[in-house]
Design goal:
Leucine-rich repeat, LRR (right-handed beta-alpha superhelix); single chain; 3 domains; 14-stranded mixed beta sheet; binds 2-acetamido-2-deoxy-beta-D-glucopyranose; alpha/beta; elongated
Length: 475
C-alpha cells in the first residue's frame, strides 16, 4: 500500500513539469511574451528604492515575470507584453521583499501603468531614523488601474493622508492600518465611488468624520475608522451608506447623539462605537438594524434606559455590550427574547429592579456581566448556570442583590462571586458564613459555606425520582 502511494507520488512528480509546460506552451503567445524595457527598468528602480543599494535586483531577477519571479510581485499580460499588476512589500512570506531602514518611494512606481494592487507591511518602521510620508503627487497616473492600496504596521509612516488619493477612482479598497498618520480624513476620499472597504484604523487622525463621505460611497461595505482621535458628531449622512455591513468608529472622541438615520442601515451586522463620548440614550431607530449581530456601545456617557427599545426586532443579535454607558431603569424581559445572544454586558451602569431569571435560559449565552449596578431581589439562576459560566458571569457590586442558595450551589463552589445569600435562607443555615461583598477572595472560600437550607429543593428532586421510577415500571 505504501509502495503504491509512493509510486503514484513519483509519477505525479515526473508528470508535473510536463503538465506545467503543456499549459504554458498551449498559450504560445504567453511563452514568448516579452516585457517592455521601460516597465522592467521601472520595476527594478522601484524595488531597489525599498530594499536599498545592497541588493542587485536586476542581477537576481533577470526575468521578473518569467523564470525568476519575485515573491510578492505579480504580472499579467496585456497586448502581447508582461506588466506588473501587484506589488506586496514586507515580511509576509519567507522570500518576501523586505525594506531597508532607508526605504523610499521612487517616482517610477507611478509608471507601472497596469498596477492593480500595492501593499506595504512593516516596511517604513523607524520613525526616528527616517520617517516617510505617503507621496503627495502622481497617484493620478494610476487612476485607471489601481484597485487596492494598503499600508499596514508602518510606524515610520507619518504625515497626512494625501488628498490626491481621491483621484484613484477605481479603488475598491483603501486600508491604512497601524501607521503614524496624522491630520484629518480628507474630504476628497468621497470621490472614491467604487470603494468597498475604507479602513483607517490605528493612526492619529483627528478632526471630524467628513460629512460628505457618506452619500457618495454607496458601494461601501466596511467603514472602520477606529483607534484614532476623531472628534465631532456622527454625521447623519452615515445613514446613506446603505450597503454597509460593518461600521466601526470605536476608540475615538466622537460626541453627540446616535443619529436616527443609522436605522437605515438594514444590512449592518456590526455596529461598534465603544469608547467615545456619545450621549443621548439608545436612539429608537436603531431597532431597525434588523441584520445586526454585534452592537458594541460600551464606555460612552450614553444614558437613557433599555425599556423603551424594541429588542425583539434585533433577532440576530449575538453580542450586546452596553457596559459603562450610564443606563438606568430595569432589564426588560424582551432582552431574554434575543435567542442568539452569546455575550451580554450590562455592567457598571445604574440598572435597578430584578434580574430576569429567563436570561439563564438563553441557549447560547456564555458571558453575562451585571456587576456594578443597583439590582435588587433574588438572583434566581440554577446552579448549572453558574457552573457553566464560571468567571464569565459577574454580579458583584450590587449591594441589594442576593442569591438563592440550594445545598449543592454553595457546597460545590458555584455560588455567584461577591453576592450574599438571601437573608431568609441564612437564618436556617447551620454554618452561617457571611461572604464579604466585593472582596476579591470570597469566591475561593465559597466551598466552605456549607448550607443545609436546601431541603425543599432536595425533597422535590426525590419526589421526581419516585415519579420517574413509577412511570418506568408501568411502561
Ligand atoms: C439572521 O440570521 C440568519 C441565519 O444566519 C439569516 O438567514 C437571516 O437572513 C438573518 N436575518 C437578517 C434580517 O439578517
Ligand atoms: C444605587 O442607588 C443608590 C441610592 O439608591 C445610589 O446612591 C447609588 O449611586 C446607586 N448606584 C449605582 C451604581 O447606580
Ligand atoms: C466594587 O466597587 C468598588 C468601587 O466602588 C471597587 O473598589 C471594588 O473593587 C468592586 N468590587 C469588585 C469585586 O469588583
Ligand atoms: C479562606 O480560607 C482560608 C482557610 O480557611 C483562610 O486562611 C482565608 O483567610 C480565607 N479567605 C477569606 C477571604 O475568607
Amino acid at each position: 500500500m505504501r509502495n503504491f502511494i509512493a509510486t503514484k507520488a513519483l509519477l505525479l512528480l515526473l508528470l508535473l513539469p510536463y503538465l506545467f509546460f503543456y499549459h504554458v506552451y498551449s498559450d504560445a503567445q504567453v511563452l514568448s511574451a516579452p516585457m517592455e524595457k521601460a516597465e522592467q527598468e521601472a520595476l527594478y528602480t522601484v524595488i531597489q528604492g525599498f530594499v536599498g543599494e545592497g541588493w542587485n535586483v536586476a542581477g537576481l531577477y533577470p526575468d521578473p515575470c518569467g523564470w525568476t519571479m519575485i515573491q510578492g510581485i505579480s504580472c499579467d499580460f496585456f497586448n502581447g507584453f508582461w506588466y506588473i499588476t501587484d506589488i506586496n512589500i514586507g515580511p509576509v512570506l519567507e522570500n518576501s521583499i523586505e525594506c531597508a531602514p532607508d526605504a523610499k518611494f521612487i517616482p517610477q512606481l507611478f509608471e507601472l501603468k497596469h498596477l492593480k494592487s500595492l501593499s506595504f507591511f512593516n516596511c517604513f518602521t523607524s520613525s526616528s531614523h527616517q520617517p516617510t510620508t505617503i507621496p503627495s503627487q502622481n497617484w493620478d497616473k494610476l487612476a485607471n488601474s489601481l484597485e487596492t492600496l494598503e499600508f499596514r504596521s508602518n510606524q515610520g509612516l507619518i504625515g497626512e493622508i494625501p488628498s490626491i488619493l481621491g483621484q484613484l477612482t477605481n479603488l475598491n479598497s483603501l486600508v491604512l492600518v497601524d501607521n503614524a498618520l496624522t491630520g484629518e480624513v480628507p474630504q476628497e476620499l468621497a470621490k472614491l465611488v467604487h470603494l468597498k472597504r475604507l479602513v483607517l484604523v490605528g493612526n492619529q487622525l483627528s478632526g471630524p468624520i467628513p460629512p460628505l463621505l457618506a452619500p457618495n460611497l454607496a458601494e461601501l461595505l466596511i467603514l472602520d475608522l477606529s483607534r484614532n482621535s476623531l472628534t465631532g458628531t456622527l454625521p447623519s449622512s452615515l445613514g446613506d451608506l446603505t450597503s454597509l455591513i460593518k461600521l466601526d468608529l470605536s476608540h475615538n472622541l466622537l460626541n453627540g447623539r446616535l443619529p436616527s438615520e443609522l436605522g437605515k442601515l438594514r444590512t449592518l451586522t456590526l455596529l461598534d462605537l465603544k469608547d467615545n463620548l456619545l450621549s443621548g440614550g439608545l436612539t429608537r431607530s436603531l431597532q431597525h438594524l434588523v441584520s445586526l449581530q454585534d452592537m458594541l456601545l460600551s464606555s460612552n456617557p450614553l444614558g437613557g434606559d433599555l425599556v423603551s427599545f424594541n429588542w425583539e426586532s434585533l433577532a440576530n443579535l449575538t453580542t450586546l455590550d452596553l457596559s459603562n454607558t450610564g443606563i438606568s431603569g430595569s432589564i426588560p424581559e424582551s432582552i431574554a427574547g434575543l435567542r442568539r445572544l452569546r455575550y451580554l454586558a450590562l455592567d457598571n451602569n445604574h440598572l435597578t429592579g430584578i434580574v430576569p431569571p429567563k436570561l439563564a435560559a438563553l441557549p447560547w449565552l456564555n458571558a453575562l456581566y451585571l456587576n456594578g449596578n443597583n439590582f435588587t431581589g433574588v438572583l434566581e439562576f440554577p446552579e448549572e448556570f453558574y457552573k457553566r459560566m464560571g468567571r464569565r458571569f459577574a454580579s458583584w457590586n450590587n449591594t441589594k442583590l442576593c442569591y438563592n442558595s440550594i445545598a449543592e450551589t454553595s457546597a460545590s463552589g458555584h455560588a455567584p462571586y461577591g453576592v450574599e445569600q438571601c437573608k431568609h435562607e441564612q437564618d436556617v443555615n447551620v454554618f452561617s458564613s457571611n461572604p464579604k461583598v466585593g472582596d476579591g477572595n470570597s469566591d475561593k472560600n465559597s466551598s466552605f459555606m456549607v448550607s443545609f437550607g436546601g431541603f425543599p429543593a432536595s425533597f422535590s428532586e426525590l419526589w421526581w425520582v419516585v415519579v420517574s421510577i413509577l412511570l418506568l415500571t408501568t411502561l
